[in-house]
Design goal:
179 residues; 37% helix; 7-stranded antiparallel beta sheet; Yope Regulator, Chain: A; 6 helices; protein transport
Length: 179
């Protein structure tokens, strides 16, 4: 099954779960996603942070996520680019801001996996999970690109790195696969 076909199937699953999806084609196929997530603290109450010098102040705990999925030509694995926005329009561009949003276990993985750079789905920059870390994950799983659960399993890795920001996409895929 081609990567484009897998993206189309994934887009159907995500759309059913309320994730906005658009397949865009530049020189390659890219699935553009958008969703909103409400951050909760460890006591399941809304997360509000006090403003500090360079750390994010969440006046509104709603984070808007823009993401792009493509096939990395050099590493031959899916690649996940993302840009979170606080308060509807403030892009989070500092590593400290991203780490503040992640669960403790995700922070360790994110430290080794996250980078910021040119996003092939936009004319700007975005955060991304480096494809060499994704390749390591697939080597550990020993899963073939033709496996129908290839992208679903890959999303579990993305969720390990970016939890709780990616919870809505995990829920959408889980719900679609149960029905």
């Amino acid at each position: 099954m081609s990567f484009k076909s897998q993206l189309l199937i994934l887009a159907q699953k995500l759309s059913k779960g309320g994730i906005s999806c658009e397949l865009i084609e530049f020189d390659e196929c890219i699935l553009k996603l958008e969703w909103h997530t409400e951050l909760l603290d460890k006591n399941d109450s809304l997360l509000y942070e006090q403003e500090e010098d360079d750390i994010l102040s969440l006046m509104n705990p709603m984070i808007t996520m823009h993401a792009w999925i493509r096939d990395s030509p050099s590493f031959e694995v899916p690649q996940f680019f993302f840009q979170p926005y606080a308060n509807g329009s403030d892009p989070l561009t500092k590593m400290e801001q991203i780490f503040e949003l992640l669960e403790g276990s995700s922070q360790n993985l994110a430290y080794d996996a996250l980078a910021i750079g040119d996003c092939p789905g936009t004319v700007g920059i975005a955060w991304y999970i480096h494809p060499c870390r994704t390749r390591d994950y697939f080597e550990m799983l020993q899963i073939d690109k033709e496996d129908p659960k290839y992208l679903s399993l890959w999303l579990l890795y993305i969720h390990q790195v970016l939890s709780p920001l990616t919870q809505p996409i995990i829920k959408a895929v889980d719900d679609a696969e149960k029905s």
